[in-house]
């Protein structure tokens, strides 16, 4: 039954040999891996305004004035980071995420910082993108009533992406490439047509200020450097997702590195252009930051009017943001499987599910992002500072690692490469410090607690696996010593199942064989002893008295006694078990055998054998 | 941890030999077994008024006029039923509930009707008593604000009784006898002092009518016979619980029958007197039926004023009603254990817990009553008709059974006894018909669906146990035929645990021994085969290919293949298992072994053996 539902939503199982087919062409890869980065244009400008306009004594103009300089700085940073990652793609064609690069070049500590930062970031990507997508839908005046259902809408979106990803990445790619291109087209249209109106057509004027908290008039004065940097920190979220392609190189068609590098450049150009364009348009149209209506929606309404084009713009925005979450679905499971293979996360994360997807990682990601969405009531802004710290931490580590890589490899032109990555490392480190300082009190302190906590978990898991590995190790040629073998058969009363179990016990060649019956009073003891005589069984019967009418403790006590009685023994506890035909029939039978088996498993030198008796 | 909490609330385990000490003296037995019957005086009068006053065109007087005749009829019925049950106690000193009497004298069908009716009634007793108890508390003007928390208050009370009963019946008896006597004393005081005021003191007048729905003035006309009978049906709930003592004879001190019979007579006298007294007082004080304030509370306020005495009256009412629920806690688990012993309910209900209480029955009763309380929002009236049908069904069956009993036994004076029980059977049957007809549309139709449903469950369970019994049956002297024995050992890679498992497998004398490795690709296959050669293991290795990367299906397939390959085989599947020191470490290891074990258990001829490997 469950299987049928699973097949319906997830599809038929795929064999390991079908793996190659899951690689994707550039056009689709651009959609899959770039939606995160490109979609950040939907909220990055707004995030800047939330800081600068709010800080400038509720005066929009002062905030809008700083928009263009900040946009230029962000675009410049984007260029540096993209160039740096281009090199990573060629050096690490098997997927050179920040984690892998740090591990190979900087050692265990930095790699764990990178791994923890990235895992947190992927979860935040899903939460932030989904809630921004919901915000785009709510911004459509016709859908205003949905505002109270932010969280529910977000959870539905997460469910849809999760199912799509459990089906496998290629199918998601095909499904997802159209909306990415639609968004790029619509946003470019907004910028171009908007600027055309401003400079050549009827001046569209400025966004009407519904919110009484904002004033158009400049109050005089200027923004402090701290506030400008804080605004820049907010704008830097536009860079999130730039590293996605370098993590996902193996998903590209051959030649993987070249295809991935080209895709990265195309993506950076599109992202930079759109982000800068939105900022320029905003500086003319004067949108204001608001939780009710997004900045893009405000400008869309002004430029296109409340018609079909505006509607398509908003839907495309919501769709690409949903797909942005999908980037994390491509990378989180992949990264966690790499970390798990290194022994820092549970091994189960390395299992590909029956659709060749790392299903456990997908499900974990969905659960974590859903929890965040619920905890923050579906409003993203509070998460952005957490997000930026992790992103720039992993950028810095990745670029530093690349510098070390070039120094070690000394491949042709390594000095130039090291210089590029060095510039990248310094630039992203500076941004990291800016973000951490300017946003410290708004939540940038959270990663300082969360990331070490995750690292502690990594280390605990690694310690556990190492210890087990050590205890399992043997030299070839090792032979366990031969031990005596005591078999005890648990019996309640004599019936067919018990006779079968006794026959089995005799056949496995025990040194000692004892049938054990747990009785609660003398009457019960007499009954089993009478039956034993009646059936004339040639197996020694011992009764164990259970004053409190339970099974587990007396049996454990008896086993302890046997361990004292015989030396150098393995004890097999043989449990004859009813097997009923339907699962619900189990409620009609005592489940004490199950509890007993669980307890016995934890004693050394005990083997537990279930001899089922099938009752048709 | 859980154990500590359990001990704190439930107490230390009691040995089977301590059973005798749980018998209770008469004074306590009266409190334990009579609280149900006596406490019904707290709501029976009100239930009559709900029918008669409401039906009489909102005229109270007309309703009040019928109260005394109905009360006389109910008291008369009580005398008949008590006399009948007195005989049952002597004929069935081991507990002659309606179920046992019907089973022994009327056969399987009637006994199942009786059993189902009684089980339902015990659940209803808890739900009705608890919500009436809550109503008594809410009736205190100072506590009026609690009205919205009916359900929560009720659930807390259920929890308290449940814990008390899990500790064991004697302790509950001691704890519970004081409030029963307090209620008897307070209600008697209300009746006597109220009637004294009416006849000799300052006339207390009548209850002021807050509720505009009722008028004092008679509207003329008279009640139809149907309505009087319907009122009588409501009043008949006062008889619920009369049978409790006959079910609980074995809990009395020796001589059980005599002690129980005397207790029954005392109880009937107290109950009849109080019920009749309340009705007489009501016909003078003119209380009105209301969900906000009980009839007893209205009269208590009028007679005692809003002081300490009134407060004690209400608290005593609430307490005895809570204890009434306790009657069901004494009888439901006992009856369900009897039915389970006959094979009509799950066997687990026959297990005494470690406090010598049938804990499973107690917990089931609490859950069912709690669910009803929630479903009905804590207001009882709707449940009363359901209640009455079950009660009089079991009365009728019990008395009819007793008539047959006397006919069979022909003990000295059997004709007189048969006559008494015959009168009882006819009387209760007539009442059953009256209740069923007059209350059909108010809910008496529900038992007509519920009771056959429960009987169907009884029969299904019985069929299941019989089938198993048959399949387990063997003649003494039966010996299972000797079979060949194939052992397969599941291996992933070669490590210490696997070597231990192989050594164990060799020691148990298999006809064939095969090590099986499930691999997902050729690389994995090569790896295990290399290891096998390296360790020079003298056990045949077969690899099974798992294209979809799962364990269970390929292993099941391989087992199927083996069954074809060898004839007449038992196959032991030996699973080397990691055992980690802490339960949470299990999440770090694959749980596929658990799933595999579950699936293998359902195949015939398969024995599953866990060879644990302890990793310290």
Could you outline the blueprint of secondary structure elements for this entry?
The structure is a homodimer of 616-residue chains.
Chain A (H helix, E strand, L loop, with lengths): L1 H9 L15 H14 L4 H12 L4 H6 L1 H25 L6 H9 L1 H31 L11 H18 L1 H31 L25 H11 L8 H4 L8 H30 L9 H10 L3 H34 L17 H17 L8 H26 L4 H25 L7 H27 L11 E7 L5 H12 L4 E8 L2 H14 L4 E6 L6 H14 L3 E11 L12 H10 L4 E9 L2
Parallel strand pairs in A: 1-2, 1-4, 2-3, 4-5
Helix pairs in contact in A: 2-9, 2-12, 2-14, 3-10, 5-10, 5-12, 5-16, 5-17, 6-7, 6-16, 7-8, 7-14, 7-15, 7-16, 7-18, 8-14, 8-15, 9-12, 9-13, 9-14, 10-17, 12-13, 13-14, 14-15, 16-17
Task: List the main descriptive attributes of the protein structure presented here.
homodimer; 616 residues; alpha/beta; 5-stranded parallel sheet; 22 helices; 7% strand; elongated
Q: Work out the strand percent of chain A.
A: 5-15%
* Overall mean pLDDT of chain A: 84
Tell me how many strands of chain A there are.
5
Describe the oligomeric state of these chains in a short phrase. homodimer
CA distance, first residue to last residue of chain A: 22 Å
Structural class of chain A: alpha/beta
Low-confidence stretches of chain A: none
The largest beta-sheet of chain A arranges its strands as 3-2-1-4-5
Kindly report the greatest chain-chain contact and the residue count on each side.
A-B, 75 and 75 residues
Element-level helix/strand string of chain A: HHHHHHHHHHHHHHHHHHEHEHEHEHE
Number of helices of chain A: 22
Helix proportion of residues of chain A, in percent? Answer: 55-70%
Cα-atom radius of gyration of chain A: 32 Å
**Sheet having the most strands of chain A:** 5 strands, parallel
Judging from the principal axes of the Cα atoms, what is the shape of chain A? Answer: elongated
